[in-house]
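in:
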């Protein structure tokens, strides 16, 4: 989305151009959760954990309530990160450079890998197998030290490794499609998800969950501040932390609001945290924000210490824009869910074909490689098998996401 919007910023003034990209960035982090809840198809990789509890809750006829938890946690996490961004940018940026070295990043990654054990409670062997499988998939392609090719088997499209998007598309939407076909073929009863509104949780519903909300927001902010870690790692670490401490831990994966809060508060808190090193140091907080740095360069702005001195209007406008973006998530979500809910009324066979077409297209446009389509289809079959035999997909994704940087 940012790539598509970048050309429109060429002839815009500094503040509107940066505001446009920040709004798209903030909205896309949240937007991927809508499809994760309603059709178990995360729009972005960081929304994968949201579907683990959001979709089961939607299948119970509580899709509107699930989206209410998602939206509330997203807005809170985003606003909490804005407070840190505004108040503590210089101090946190200094902390990022001091404690953002290889040793600290490696320790953080080990913490993330340890979360596989928490997510695999009840079947540790399968969880560990999936974690190792994810780490193995991350080694495919170019070896980072010597430059040698590993496990490519002569395929040109895999020399640069397996891309994250075809992997996520295969494990979630395509696996869901194959599972839907299996349900229809085996005459299982399919409970359709129907939702055209959002029901926000009441204050009484938040009782006992505020601590988890705050903890997940802090996890997202801290991981966002460390350059290069990204929201996907923050989401799974937060989800695993919530599962280990929640009094409803046995209900995780079955439609537990605590899981939704953990995933959404963390991935939206990353947005403000990731902007700290981006604005203060000129180091992208995650890969997506590299496009924001490109926009700064196009408009003759140099991110870093001098940006706050030479262009304070741009810095403070960025702060205000991000705050407004998080507040605007609420009306935007209400409108989007209403429109997206209409799609769910399409007959099942047509809807499956529609999702299949979009999934294959999404796998292709990531790198414009037809090989990625085969990767997505293969991972879809593997994901279908994982669902049938109860292997945790989250464990594999954690290994795959953290593997390259860990190495």
């Amino acid at each position: 989305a940012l790539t598509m919007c970048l050309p429109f910023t060429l002839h815009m003034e500094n503040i509107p151009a940066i505001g446009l990209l920040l709004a798209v960035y903030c909205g896309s982090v949240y937007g991927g959760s809508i499809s994760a809840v309603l059709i178990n198809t995360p729009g972005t990789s960081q929304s994968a954990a949201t579907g683990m509890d959001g979709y089961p809750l939607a299948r119970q006829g509580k899709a509107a309530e699930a989206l209410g938890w998602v939206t509330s946690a997203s807005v809170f996490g985003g606003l909490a990160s804005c407070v840190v961004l505004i108040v503590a940018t210089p101090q946190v940026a200094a902390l990022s450079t001091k404690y953002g070295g290889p040793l600290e990043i490696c320790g953080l990654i080990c913490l993330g890998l340890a979360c596989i054990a928490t997510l695999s409670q009840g079947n540790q062997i399968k969880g560990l197998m999936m974690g190792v499988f994810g780490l193995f998939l991350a080694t495919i392609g170019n070896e980072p030290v010597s430059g040698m090719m590993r496990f490519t088997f002569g395929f040109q499209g895999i020399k640069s490794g397996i891309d994250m998007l075809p992997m996520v598309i295969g494990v979630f939407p395509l696996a869901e499609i194959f599972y839907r076909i299996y349900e229809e073929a085996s005459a299982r009863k399919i409970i359709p998800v129907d939702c055209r509104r959002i029901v926000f949780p009441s204050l009484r519903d938040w009782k006992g969950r505020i601590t988890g909300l705050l903890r997940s927001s802090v996890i997202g902010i801290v991981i966002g501040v460390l350059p290069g870690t990204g929201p996907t790692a923050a989401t799974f670490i937060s989800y695993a932390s919530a599962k280990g401490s929640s009094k409803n831990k046995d209900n995780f994966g079955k439609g537990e609001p605590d899981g939704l809060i953990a995933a959404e508060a963390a991935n939206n808190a990353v947005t403000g945290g990731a902007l700290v090193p981006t604005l203060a140091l000129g180091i992208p907080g995650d890969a997506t924000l590299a496009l924001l740095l490109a926009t700064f360069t196009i408009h003759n702005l140099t991110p870093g210490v001098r940006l706050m001195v030479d262009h304070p209007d741009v810095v403070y406008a960025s702060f205000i824009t991000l705050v407004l973006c998080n507040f605007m998530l609420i009306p935007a979500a209400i409108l989007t869910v209403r429109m997206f809910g209409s799609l769910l009324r399409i007959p099942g066979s047509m809807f499956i074909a529609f999702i299949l077409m979009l999934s294959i297209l999404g796998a292709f446009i990531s790198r414009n490689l037809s090989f990625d389509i085969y990767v997505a289809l293969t991972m879809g079959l593997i994901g279908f098998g994982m669902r049938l035999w109860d292997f945790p997909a989250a464990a594999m994704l954690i290994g795959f996401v953290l593997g390259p940087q860990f190495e």
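note: Residues 48-99 form the longest helix (52 residues).
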